[in-house]
Structure prediction request, 702 residues.
Amino acid sequence: MPRPSRDLSSSFDSQSPLTLGASAGHEPAPDGFAGKDQDADPVVARRWLRRKHALSLGLIAAVLAAVVTTIGILSSEIHSLRHPPHSSSESSGECLTPECIDASAVLMDGANLSADPCQDFYAYACGGFVDRHYMPHGRGGASQFTIATRDNDMVILQSLEEGGPTEGHGGRALAKARKYYQQCMDTTAMDARGVSPILDLLTIPDFLVDVDNSSANFTKEEVVFGAIRELQQRHLRIFTDFYVGEDRLSGNETMVNVRQGILGLLDASYYRRPGKNDTEAVTKRNAAILQAYKALLWKGLRLLETRTAHSVSTFSAKGSGDEVEAVVAFETRLAGCHSPKENLQDPRQTHNPMPVEEAEEIFPLGWRTFLAGMPGGPSNYTGRINVETPDALRCVTRVLGETPMEVIALYMKIVILLHRAEILDKDLRQWKYQFNLETTGNSGHGPRWRQCMDLVQSYQRFGFAITKAYTEHRGFGEEGRREVISMFEGVERAFLDTLPEVGWMEPDTKTYAAEKARRMKKHLGYPEWAMDDVQVERYFEDVEVEDGKFYENTVALMGDHQRRNFEDLPSGDRPRRGRGGHRWGMSPTEVNAYYSPTKNSMNFPAGILNPPFYTTGAPLALNYGSLGAFIGHEFLHGFDSTGRKYGADGTLRDWWTEREEAEYERLTSCFVGQYERFEVAGHRVDGEVTLGENIADNGGAA
Prediction:
């Protein structure tokens, strides 16, 4: 199952787990693709359509005014706490419960009340937080998510470490999770094995070179795409990315979706020549990152060469040999094939289902053979393939045909390194942390227990195995569940109440928008089955954690996750069908939330339903000011620039008139222009790419 398309936390904090991918931040995109999206602003949730022309800077002013008012009220409470009243009558209307006192203390610590809010509102509201939270080199940011995650980590850790207060809950599945965690912690065993776990992978690119130097009766296309197929079946994303999902138009057919692959660097723009809109700072930064990238590839290949009998050729003393230059030139051509990011956000542009034979003409992977070799894959796939980026994949096929075999082979070795270095020996792990730091600004390095904990608690691994132990210790009970459900309903009512005020929407469109809002599903805390030991053990019954094989166990968990998705695909003996039901695309332990456009559902894991974002029994104003804004954010994704193209049932549907579509585009263009004026380190925000998040942030806060 792909990663949910709308999630909160990634822009707030950059405390990376073991990524097991080409670069930090490259999670598979999900239903509707928009990449990892984020952000939320802590104010009461309300619909962005409240005013006819609300999509303007005036909305930002209104948000700031609300924040000022909130801080003013709570500052008064803080003053009262410092100077208690002398009589009960003076305390009338004040909140002196433990929850209010805790919230006031957090606010007082975060603010700098000596600053003048009229001169520097940020210093007034956040100056204390900035002073108290040091951001070390290699970290992308610090926020309330940092605090929430830190506290949450302790609960997860207690669930994983034997002897903790939750020992005995969860049965055999939890025991497997704990064993896997202990294996991850045993770096001595990892170091002793060196690169031996990937020697079989390295034979795949070596075969390309051997065949190229022999008289074997294979075509280049057969050899290259056979190697790509083999690597993909071993869970290495190379040249393409894919996931299993439902037909966006009908929802009654499950199919394979394929799109352009990921690159070694975060974005295709790093490889291209400077554009007319690039500032000098951006040009220098991109050039520096590309040069660092080449040096890091050289270093990684040298590390690989010293650990294997496989020669990676001779490199120059300057740190970048001819071979690396050739590989980066090859990858630059691949980057030139890529469709723009804003195109990937349009679910209509990326909906191109076709028979397998047509997909084969675009990218000749040998699709039926590939799918049959995947865990749980169909022996004779009878469905269609949705090629989301056909032009990009045609281009990649052409570039592969024009590139020497030895360059492709060396590129494959680099991809193997980037995907697997973090679960190999110390030198390669350190190399990958340096790679992350120099190419993304965030090393992903940190305490080993945190890296291992993040790896284990992922929904793709053992997140559901530790859910029961985690939630029982976390203490989110029925009272909290009722309160949060009431907040969901409150946000929905606010939307429905303001909808009639929108003058530019037709009555029928408003009626359907209201229907979509009412039918939006709300999933809270965790799936019920995750609290049943028998069902959890059945979910993990095919997972074995073998002694002394952390690498193999990690790859096997990838395969088990894939199996659950590929089993849904139709075959000769398995008819076409929709997936039905609801599958969580996030671990209940995560401090995050997401909206799925193809399910029309909001999903709030138990991890985010705790302080500082939510406190059971706290005044509603406090909970609405934090968690309520997140609910508004996710709710508004159902009506943002991508979500609005889906209907109440989660299928693509044209429910706007042409005039309304044009007006929507006109109104939201002010957000595009506003955010494109924001500049960080010489780099301007791409307002088209961030539009969905900007709508959700501002609308959710309003």
